[in-house]
Amino acid sequence: MVRFTDDTDGGFHGPSLEEFFPPAIFFEGTPFELNRIMLIRILVTILLIVWLVIATRRMRIVPTRFQAANEFLLGFVRNNIVVETLGEKDGKRFMAPLMTMFFLILGLNLTGVIPFLNIAGTSVIGTPLVLAIVSYVMFIYAGIKKNGGRFFKNSLFPSGVPWFLYIIVTPIELISTFVLRPVTLTLRLLMNMVAGHMLLVLCFSATQFFFFTVLADGNLIGLLGIGSFAFGAVFTLFELLVAVLQAYVFTFLAAVYIQLALADEH
After folding, report:
1. Which of 94, 143, 254, 266 has its CB surrounded by the most CB atoms within 10 Å?
2. How far, in Å, CA of 189 to CA of 249, rounded?
3. Among residues 226, 234, 243, 232, which one has the least CA distance to residue 200?
4. 65 pLDDT more than 50
């Protein structure tokens, strides 16, 4: 019988939430303490800056393949998220932060399936929370800039509702508009990245256990590692899809919230 144990003798070790709180690597015990996840975030940020600088230099009328690929990526976000949701005029105002948000989330999500990194920079609450706060500030700013003080009145006291129903409607609007939006943005991104990481760790940890512990001892049950490896490969492809989808959903919802704030009445 195969026994899955937590001993230190080569037994099976399943995924743990401790992986999301790695030990410090640099500046331990200081406000500038850096662990593995923080270094991944810094690395992705630097790579994105370098990519955008290179991609926007020496643009040609007849684009090279590299320029065409970059124009496709940037155009996808511009046309399918920003302009599609906010329109041409308002889209230009919020193009830079929304474009940055999309590619930062995408880059941090993809680190979860990159060898030697193997964990998404968005799988700890700090980054999803900061991005949700940024989208929240943009949403509030857009509403106040467009409608002034009427923004809060229109949000909390929708027109066409009988006055006595405001006792019910106003608290619901307060919670759904000004509380749940940043919370749901944060948790949706965070939980998807955490769940994806746990699945991949489970599959590949099981593969290592079956091949290098069970099969190495001459037990043919170790061939089950073929199945766990296959599941891991499938989940890796699925995680790639989730990485792109979550970047799209987060940025799209941020744009939708801005669009709702720009509406005259909502």
Report:
1. 254
2. 9
3. 232
4. yes
Residue 36 has pLDDT above 70, yes or no: yes
pTM: 0.90
Contacts for 160 with CB less than 8 Å, ≥ 6 apart? none
State the Cα–Cα distance between residues 52 and 66, nearest whole angstrom.
Answer: 12
Q: What is the pLDDT of residue 265?
A: 55
- CB proximity list for 101: less than 8 A, separation 6 or greater: 131, 134, 135, 250, 251, 254
Structural contact between residues 260 and 142, judged by C-beta atoms closer than 8 angstroms: no
User: What is the residue whose two structure tokens read 């759904």?
Assistant: 176
Contacts with 111 (C-beta within 8 Å, 6 or more apart), sequence order: 40, 44, 117, 118, 119, 120, 121
Distance CA 10, CA 215 (A): 12
C-alpha 74/C-alpha 20 separation (Å) is 31
